[in-house]
Here is the input.
Amino acid sequence: MSDSIKYLLSEDRMPKAWYNLVADLPVPPPAVLHPGTGQPVGPDDLAPLFPMALIAQEVTAEREVEIPEPVRDVYRQWRPSPLFRARKLEKALDTPAKIYYKYEGVSPTGSHKPNTAVPQAFYNKQEGTKRLTTETGAGQWGSSIAYAGQYFGLEVDVYMVKVSFQQKPYRRALMQTFGARCVASPSVETNSGRAVLAEYPDSTGSLGIAISEAVEMAAQRDDTKYALGSVLNHVLLHQSIIGLEAMEQMDMAGDDPDIVIGCAGGGSNLAGLAFPYIGRNLREGKKTRIIAAEPASCPTLTRGKFAYDFGDTASLTPLVKMYTLGSNFIPSPIHAGGLRYHGMAPLLSHAYSLGLMEARAYAQTECFIAGVTFAKAEGIVPAPESTHAVKAAIDEALKCKESGESKTILFNLSGHGYFDMQAYTDFFDGKLTDEPYDEAMLAKSLGGLPDIAAE
Here is the structure.
């Protein structure tokens, strides 16, 4: 029996096409609606924000979408990413479970986000875009689009959620190193930012607010487009390379997962690993369980409503049907800034509504405990977001210990935490708290959903 720890694919075995779950769904996903007319949006409605190549990917029902060679050339810097067997963690937990993790922290910015940042920058460059605006929570996405933007010669402006801007100065520095401008959101640069500050002068910000600012700035110039790091179909499509590689690597290991896990905020890293497995379940009748691990302070899947809502706080975006806490919901300032989003990706939400996956919500401190347990065993410090997936994986492994079953668990370690050590310092100093969300705010936010939500 092999005692291998890592499973590596050569560059020539990198997937040549992304996978699109839409092709295998038993029920088509709900339409995206124009906020003014309530009718399905067309390409012209999205053209002010996105290049036509990405709009085509957003609506395609094709199972495979070819990865352009210039994108694959950049991917080769870190892809295929490694798959690890967590043998030391298994031993530390004394579990009969087999635990594997796909490690996306080997990318230039330390997370899975360049998987979509690179193609987004490429397609924008092809169409003649000069400047990109975007939002970021913890900074993984902002640093990734900054990296991709400098590679393809694009100017990048990043609106970073204010609490993360303050908590994570090294993420800001990384964006600046790649030539991007980073602004704390809400800011005084935009109408939407000024409106929030007028009502809440001490606002810690949210991804919904930062999206509003980035969209508003993109709409002001013809040479500028908007880039989004999660949620939309084309983003999830690009991330599918994670799961496609993982399938080949699990074959190399002579194993197959019973359970696939990812942390969930907007949904990109979870979908990236899980969608190829959900598609296989649908095509071949397999029963691989998919688990979304989300923060208890922003429990979009476990407490949200499946309804049409705006993707941003200022109601500038199209209406999408997703699990949402309401676009005015502002989560507690937890360190997992990348998971502090009021909505879940519409395609992932659709899959959840069809019963194709499960969801769990975890508090901040229990996730950091899991992250430290993992780091001590495996030698990698997980990003605060990724600790949610680690927590879910450990829980499943301990269930196997209780039952005596030897299940195979695969999770996405979506990024390292070496830019997030202040979070670990706060944890060790006893400064981290499990701040519950405000029930009154949630009720008010859900009560303010667009009227179409009731249809």
User: Anything to note?
Assistant: Residues 7-13+68-110+239-454 form a domain with the Rossmann fold fold (CATH 3.40.50.1100). The chain is about 40% helix and 15% strand. The mean pLDDT is 95.
